[in-house]
Specification:
Number of strands: 34
CATH topology of the largest domain: TIM Barrel
Helix content: 25-40%
Distance between the termini: 135 Å
Largest sheet: 8 strands, mixed, barrel
CATH architecture of the largest domain: Alpha-Beta Barrel
CATH superfamily of the largest domain: EAL domain
Number of helices: 22
């Protein structure tokens, strides 16, 4: 045997075991040192929970990073400290609580930490642990502070999802949110309204004041829209000068109309940009889901169609979407094509409405009004074709014809009476317009003092100095200038100080309803009259229809009067005959009291009584009631429901019944659709139609039938007889 005694197998095994244990201790010590080094270096944290999900270990550095105390952390539920981040794109969209409850492995899960230093974001990893018997022991995991990375990503996402000029959400972002919102709302049976906004005449401001000024105006407009939308609404810039407001869980068109009106008013107030003043207007189109569309694209198309309808009416107003707008859009395209040759074909006519002295009712002026006699459609309302002419640029040619025609007519009148001609802002091109007026005056030989140009406030948008130069050139020609529709759109007292107007016209919207209790219109009329008097200008109160309105505007001091109470617009031939006969005074003829505006309709609608639906002829419609023809033996006091179409049901009571005509009073007043129409505040919900067995879709025109109303079998006999008004045939 050698010097060293040979080890026995047991000794060798004991030595080997000792070395393994020593190696394990070294590895464990090294691992602990490495983990300590990892934590101390701020590279990450470690955490563990017990079987109940309460933290039983969290790295000291993590506790310090969260500005917590150890006793408030240990023993607390992990989900109480590690909060869900709804903006984080965690795998599968699962929350931390779900993963813990399911005992799933955790990898790359982002949570939010509320600390005294502000919000932090950590990325978690972890594994569930089990003992030898398979009993769950809790989680062991790590965490990494990714706050800097997260904030950088959020900034990048924000830039990609927002408008760089206004800071609002951009088109793609708002459409993404709207699509998701509508998806959720379909399940919860909620509604959602959108308001699409377009700035009128922004292009002119951008061109005259520069792109920098245009961008500043866009920012200021965005701020105004956001203030009106408030916390309930989401606001985005769609591009150009278009914005979108999303109002969840809102379908009351009374409330939405107020939003639309406030937007139009606020956005038309002057903007101060680099010491200069700029003015634009706004038009708003309103659509509501699911009434006007179920999908986001469908809803946007509806709002856009309503927006174009608002701009086509008179701008500076709002409009609700309705099913007939699709048909009107097609008709509009056809009208534009027909309008291009209307002058050459002799279809345009000049009509004249008198303006009289407020004290004597003697004739002082005629307002010239263009009428279009379409070969197929008959007389087309100026409210339809003038906006088309303005947007297409045809107004320049039509306007030049009108000026020349009025000058020719005025020259032929046997007495010297002024003629007022409406001028669109589109016509006021430097040099060109002044030359047009000059040529008309010289070619006809009419006295320039007989010609009065009525100009709206919208001409002052943008280039104030250029507009004033045009006015001064016109005054040198000897014509008079009148400010039309004062106070309705782009009001500013600044330009009245220098603009050479001879007359201010008080818009009919202030005259109508001015005698009603609680109405501020009378005070507005009084203020405008006082202002005009101080500036040495005449005033014309237009749109007078009733004796009480006439008395009020006369008492308030208006110097001139205009309206149906004296005469409507008449042809040039009828006017000439009156002048030749020497009839220069007008006697006021009209109702004693102002009545709510009634629209002549002449369309067939449904009237529902005791589960029976009758077909009647709607003759006229106002906010408070309607006149219908078609039923016999209807007692006064009978409660009925009018089906006005498009899901609009109006509860009404018969207040007057004569033969086959009934006068109805509505339980709830109708509201303005923002244009010249009326509508109900609420409509039949598409969710009601869905409940009746139909697929969810936008409202059809006959929503009552879609709900199965026409299929209801009633045991009651029809209470009334239906009369065919067209043929005067009575059917049981």
């Amino acid at each position: 045997m050698g010097p060293a005694a040979k080890k026995s197998p047991l000794q060798w095994l004991a030595n080997a075991t000792s070395k393994v244990r020593q190696a394990k201790r070294v590895r464990t010590k090294t691992k602990i040192e490495m983990l300590d080094s990892f934590e101390n270096a701020g590279l990450g944290y470690f955490w563990s929970t017990d079987s109940h999900g309460n933290l039983d270990y969290l790295s000291r550095e993590a506790i310090e990073a969260g500005e917590w105390k150890e006793e408030q952390v240990l023993g607390s539920p992990i989900s109480q400290l590690f909060l869900q981040d709804n903006q984080a794109e965690n795998a599968g969209g699962r929350s931390l609580s779900f993963l813990l409850a399911a005992r799933n492995a955790i990898s790359g899960h982002i949570v939010r930490i509320e600390s005294g230093f502000g919000d932090q974001w950590w990325e978690l990893a972890g594994q569930p642990c089990f003992d030898d018997q398979g009993n769950f022991q809790g989680y062991r995991g790590s965490a990494r502070d990714i706050t800097s990375e997260r904030q950088a990503k959020l900034r990048q996402d924000r830039r990609a999802r927002s408008c760089s000029i206004t800071g609002l959400a951009n088109r793609s972002h708002i459409l993404e949110r709207l699509t998701e919102m509508l998806r959720v709302f379909r399940n919860t049976k909620q509604t959602c309204a959108i308001l699409m906004i377009d700035l009128d005449r922004f292009k002119q401001v951008n061109e005259l004041l520069g792109q920098g000024a245009g961008n500043e105006l866009l920012r200021q407009a965005a701020g105004r829209i956001s203030r009106i939308a408030g916390e309930k609404g989401s606001v985005a810039r769609l591009g150009g000068d278009e914005y979108l407001v999303v109002l969840p869980d809102q379908d009351d068109r009374g409330v939405l109309g107020d939003y639309g009106e406030r937007l139009c008013q606020m956005l038309s107030q002057p903007y101060s940009i680099d010491g200069k003043q700029a003015e634009v207007g706004a038009s708003v189109g309103i659509a509501v889901a699911p009434y006007d569309g179920v999908e986001s694209s469908e809803l946007l198309d509806a709002a856009e169609m309503a927006l174009y309808a608002a701009k086509g009416t008179r701008k500076g107003t709002y409009r609700f979407y309705s099913n007939d707008l699709k048909l009107r859009a097609k008709e509009r395209a056809g009208l534009e094509a027909d309008l291009r040759g209307a002058e050459e074909r002799g279809e345009l006519k000049m009509f004249y409405q008198p303006i009289v002295d407020a004290g004597t009712y003697s004739l002082k002026c005629f307002e010239a009004l263009i009428r279009w006699e379409h070969p197929r459609r008959g007389w087309v309302s100026p409210g339809e074709f003038i906006p088309i002419a303005e947007e297409s640029g045809l107004i320049r040619k039509i306007g030049a014809w009108a000026i020349r025609q009025v000058c020719e007519d005025a020259k032929s009148w046997p007495v010297e009476i002024r003629a007022a001609i409406n001028v669109s802002a589109v016509q006021l091109e430097p040099d060109v317009f002044v030359e047009t007026v000059k040529n008309a005056l010289s070619s006809t030989g009419v006295d320039p003092s007989q010609i009065e140009l009525e100009i709206t406030e919208s001409v002052f948008v943008g280039d104030f100095e250029g507009t004033m130069a045009i006015f001064n050139s016109l005054k040198k020609l000897g014509v008079r200038l009148s400010l039309d529709d004062f106070g309705t759109g782009y009001s500013s007292l600044g330009y009245l100080r220098n603009a050479p107007f001879d007359k201010i016209k008080i818009d009919q919207c202030f005259v109508r309803g001015s005698t009603e209790a609680g109405n501020n219109n009378a005070a507005i009329i009084s203020t405008v009259v006082s202002l005009a008097h101080a500036l040495g200008m005449d005033t014309v109160a237009e749109g007078i229809e009733s004796q009480d309105e006439l008395e009020l505007v006369s008492d308030k001091g208006a110097s001139h009067l205009q309206g149906l109470i004296f005469s409507g617009a008449v042809t040039g031939e009828d006017l000439l005959a009156r002048l030749q006969s020497g009839q220069l005074n007008y006697e006021p003829r009209g109702p004693e009291k102002y009545r709510a505006d009634r629209r002549t309709e002449f369309r067939r609608i449904g009237l529902i009584h005791d589960d029976h639906r009758y077909t009647v002829l709607l003759r006229n419609l106002s906010k408070t009631g309607a006149m219908v023809d078609g039923l016999l033996n209807v007692p006064t006091g009978t409660d009925v429901v009018l089906d006005l179409g498009g899901g609009q049901l109006a509860v009404a009571t018969v207040r007057r019944s004569e033969g086959y005509s009934q006068g109805l009073e509505f339980e709830t007043a109708l509201i303005s659709d923002g244009s010249d129409g009326l509508c109900t505040r609420h409509r039949v919900s598409p969710y009601q139609i869905e409940a009746a067995g139909r697929p969810l879709a936008a409202l059809p025109e006959d929503a009552y039938s879609a709900m199965g109303g026409n299929k209801i079998k009633s045991a009651k006999v029809k209470a009334f007889l239906e009369a065919d008004i067209a043929h005067r045939e009575v059917a049981a």
